[in-house]
Amino acid sequence: xxxxxxxxxxxxxxxxxxxxxxxxxxxxxxxxxxxxxxxxxxxxxxxxxxxxxxxxxxxxxxxxxxxxxxxxxxxxxxxxxxxxxxxxxxxxxxxxxxxxxxxxxxxxxxxxxxxxxxxxxxxxxxxxxxxxxxxxxxxxxxxxxxxxxxxxxxxxxxxxxxxxxxxxxxxxxxxxxxxxxxxxxxxxxxxxxxxxxxxxxxxxxxxxxxxxxxxxxxxxxxxxxxxxxxxxxxxxxxxxxxxxxxxxxxxxxxxxxxxxxxxxxxxxxxxxxxxxxxxxxxxxxxxxxxxxxxxxxxxxxxxxxxxxxxxxxxxxxxxxxxxxxxxxxxxxxxxxxxxxxxxxxxxxxxxxxxxxxxxxxxxxxxxxxxxxxxxxxxxxxxxxxxxxxxxxxxxxxxxxxxxxxxxxxxxxxxxxxxxxxxxxxxxxxxxxxxxxxxxxxxxxxxxxxxxxxxxxxxxxxxxxxxxxxxxxxxxxxxxxxx
Length: 482
Description:
This protein is α+β, with helices and mostly antiparallel strands. The protein contains 23 helices and twelve strands. Helix 8 (181-193) runs antiparallel to helix 11 (233-243). The chain starts with 10 loop residues before the first helix and ends in a 5-residue tail after the last helix.
């Protein structure tokens, strides 16, 4: 990581060049072709930024003075190519195990009503870098890599990276007007890179947040996902809420600031939510988990709609988990998240209070079975979300809640040793039910199956003869002659 603005091309830059030299098996074949044909080729943008930060990259971005058709001809036999972005000057090629995208120098203008660029090609690397979103992405390295050759950095992106400041190469208002999605990307980079957005950029975002309305839901979803999965999502979310961007992405989260929680121990439900998110992240076993993080972020969004003040002044939010689940489903669907993500996050929001009926082991075994059944494949995530939802400052109460959940998990483990708790089925299958009742396939078999399943949850495994007797008793009560 660079650390000295007074020496912008010192030791850190040379170390970055050394890292880029590691990529020469990919960059050299490209550079040879472009330079031999009389063209310039640069590694650019996030690829340079990440090298300076010591971050690995799976994709490489390049820019060149060659026109797209020339680029396609030059890279044609290096590997598989794609031309989905050729209208915007971009040609893609797979070189070894890296995806490479090569874009002709650009000097675009934008349609203010649609954010679609009116593509025009440029002639200089400096002009191309001027149209980039932020200075830390407006750096380039000429190819082939030469450790003695400085980084092309007309806007001091290296210095901003050293200071961890996010600035735009041109006036922020002009940059964000050209492409309003850049405002959300500022929040995303705050989450991913831990950078601070420059005050003038924050001011422009605050004044122009409504411009985000012209951006498609899919593009917003992709930026939000990267923000949520970043190393510092709290910082990115705070930018969204403080500037008003959240009103156009996740308005339910911003509105949590208006709702004091029922214990009156947190400044607001919004602050509680951000703490829950951070605590959930700390419990992730295998890296960022989008479903868990979204559930932590949205678990209390039903509170503003369900807030009521009871006699004595106590604030309550009855059934906010049910209301919140419906709101979650609506919001994530509007953002075009995949159905499985929508279903899983909404289900976790709906279930996040279920544990609070468990006090000192008061649940019966049947209640534990229902908890496992309802959690289904989300049970481990439900464990993490429920534990994260404890943000009380009362250490004794926090310990009691943790101990109670330890007890519940221990009981689940003990029941798993005794029975197939994760795959509860009746003690008689459909064929056996039909044989006992002497009926053909139909709705009656399904009702009998559900009865036996409920019986299994309530009382645990039954002997075959006992299950048959129970089924016959049920059938007699329902007028079925067995």
